[in-house]
TrEMBL record:
Residues 57-89, 152-187 are annotated as: Disordered. It comes from Halogeometricum luteum. Residues 178-187 have a biased composition (Polar residues). This is Tat (Twin-arginine translocation) pathway signal sequence.
């Protein structure tokens, strides 16, 4: 059974994958002038860049949940549409945990700052030094660095998509599919 998700469709539309992962890394160099700011050294300072980071849910737990749902479907306890809904809910919960885990890791990493997140797509906008951003690829939940514009597209799609995306603040981040902190476009 294939469970189609909004996140998967967004990532397909955004063209993520190996090629864009590499493009995201090269964006650190190519867009340096555009993404450099001029204050402090806390991830928003001199030499700082902004990129989108995509995180993935815990794949082992997601596979376990998928097997549980498939078992329920096979035994007739749930319909196909209920199974798909349960899987999407499980995937979203695990994705939210991955974003939260990334936030915690970023908070404890020098020169890396979370600027905003679109949890429903697992995309986080971060600011930091180029080396720190590249090092974030070693975080277990991170699967790609992408250009900052990918975050903007995700945010727009989430806010305009089916009326489910709403802008939230850090305080109400738990159930809010889109959250954004002090994000400002840099020129």
């Amino acid at each position: 059974m294939d469970f189609e998700t909004d996140r998967r469709r967004f990532l397909e539309l955004a063209g993520t994958g190996t090629a864009l992962s590499l493009a995201g890394c090269s964006a650190l160099q190519d867009d340096a002038a555009q993404q450099t700011t001029t204050t402090g050294t806390d991830g928003s300072g001199e030499g700082s860049r902004r990129v989108a980071v995509t995180v993935q849910p815990d794949q082992q737990r997601l596979q376990e949940r998928r097997q549980e749902i498939q078992s329920e479907l096979s035994s007739g306890n749930v319909s196909r549409s209920e199974a798909q809904q349960q899987y999407q809910t499980a995937q979203q919960e695990l994705l939210t945990r991955a974003v939260d885990s990334f936030r915690q890791r970023a908070d404890s990493t020098e020169n890396l700052r979370v600027v905003g997140a679109v949890e429903q797509f697992g995309i986080v906008l971060v600011a930091g030094g180029p080396a720190t951003l590249i090092d974030s690829l070693s975080f277990e939940m991170v699967n790609a660095l992408l250009p900052q514009e990918t975050f903007q597209r995700a945010k727009s799609q989430a806010q305009g998509g089916a009326g489910t995306g709403t802008a939230g603040s850090e305080a109400g981040a738990g159930a809010t599919p889109v959250e954004s902190s002090t994000e400002t476009p840099s020129n």
